[in-house]
Amino acid sequence: MRVLVAGATGFVGRRLCPLLVEAGHDVVAMTRSPEKYDGAGTPVKADVHDPNSLPAALADCDAAYYLIHSLDSPDFERLDREAASAFAHAASSAGIRRIVYLGGLGSDDDKLSAHLRSRREVEQVLASTGVPVTTLRAGIVIGHQGISWEMTRQLVEHLPAMVVPKWVDTKTQPIALDDVVRYLIAVLDHPEAEGRTFEIGGPEILRYRTMMQRVAAIEGRTLPIVPVPLLSPGLSGRWLGLVTDVDVRTARSLVDSMSNEVVVHDDSIRDLVDFEPMTYDESVRVALAERRAEQEARRAPKAEA
Q: Which letter does DSSP use for residue 219 in this model?
């Protein structure tokens, strides 16, 4: 199958493309800078914020993955809405048979954050032109270079103790990056997944406080945590910007979402894709090992030409 990956250079896309190729698919990696692309698949120049660039990228493709977001912009809701609309219209015109989208967990009955509301809106916009959309909704994805994971890791490693807002007691269901990619690839082979929404998560429901303390334990640290009720999302975002290298706007959006419980209520994905996801501790160890390997590769002397 010829498959376009929109967001091929992102956190999930970088891991997805080589495994799609390994699974036998002809991968088209969509990027704004194809001359710099060194990943799997054939790079093609296109930008979701430039609708005129999309038809050529989508030409002759059977399916498309949509892994785009604009969280680092103050106007991310409008940008993501417009980008999804442009992509949906181009996909329809190109005869794409299926779009696979990675969205966010969270109950529609809850008062969702702007970030999670935007993810829901993108789901609807992508489906608005009639192309069947398969949506996988996930919470925090644990993997090297993932924004939410990096925020967690850096907080644990940079601070001997934390005074944190009450969102540390919110429940979430983290999932390993490898397991997210496994689900993304698997649904492509199931026609019965067309037009459906699935919730995906790891085997454990945890509070953010527990997640951070377990990272600390794995790294041989102790991490006292004292929650306070009056730390607003804006202040939390600025605080995270000081103690981590996560962009302040992105941190603010993520913190705002941490007041929403993000757990799996419908595990029907297991009827189609049956495997045992990694535990939280396993996913943390994998992410830390990949970071160490990358650091060692950078420090290693380069071979002479």
A: T
